[in-house]
Amino acid sequence: MAPLSLGIDIGGTKVAAGVVDPHGVILEEVRRDTPGRDARAVEAVIAELVHELGQRHPIDAVGIGAAGWMDLSGSRVVLAPTWPGATSRCAKTLRGCWAVRYW
Hints:
The protein has helices spanning 39-56, 89-95; strands at 4-10, 14-20, 26-33, 59-66, 69-71, 76-79, 101-102. The chain has 103 residues and is α/β, with parallel strands linked by helices.
């Protein structure tokens, strides 16, 4: 089977996740409410979505998007209004949860 990717969008009211194939076809979508303004709670929702969708699909890579500013040279969140409190630790925290690539 071709490698699949998981895209996660952290919004002010919802966290949306979708599994896509190499051609951009969406295979499955799941949504959760954004859990307030607690960075660790948002990270827990992300972990839950990756785990849930990873049980049903062979995920090869995960991309996470949120409004705000990123320092791409160090995978560091500078400011994310929908992911308040997120810091440079978030990439390390999430990378440690699954054996997939993140960007």
